[in-house]
Amino acid sequence: MIHWFKQNLLSTKTFYKTSSYFLPWISTAFIVCFIYGLIGGLFLAPADYQQGDGFRIMYVHVPSCFTAMFIYLVMAFCALLTLVWRIKIAAIAMSCSASIGASLTFLALVTGSIWGKPMWGTWWIWDARLTSVLILFFLYLGFMALRSVIPDHQNRDKACSILALVGVINLPIIHYSVNWWNTLHQGSSFAQLAKPSIAPTMLYPLLSMIVAFFLFYSLILLIRMRNEILLRDIKSQWIKEALTC
Amino acid sequence: MLSLQDLSFERQYRYLFRQLNTEVNSGELLQITGANGSGKSTLLRMIAGYIEIQEGQILWQNQTIPELHYIGHQNGIKAYLTVEENLELISALINTSKNNISLAMDEVGLKRFKNSLAQKLSAGQLRRLALARLLLKSSPLWILDEPGTALDTQGQEWLVNLIKQHLAHKGVVIAATHQPYSFGKILCL
Amino acid sequence: MLVTLLRSEIRMNLRQTFSWATPLLFFVMVVCLFPLGLGSDPIALHQSAAAIIWVTALLAILLSLGNIFQSDKEEGFLDLLLLSPHSLTLIVLAKAFSHWLIYCLPLILISPILGFLLHLSPYEVGVLIITLLLGTPVLTLLGAIGAALVIGVRHQGLLLSILIMPFYIPILIFGTGTMLAASTHLVINGYIAVMGALLLMTLAFAPLLTGIALKIGANQS
Question: Looking at the partner chain, which of C149, C152, C164 has a beta carbon nearest the beta carbon of A162?
Answer without folding.
Answer: C149
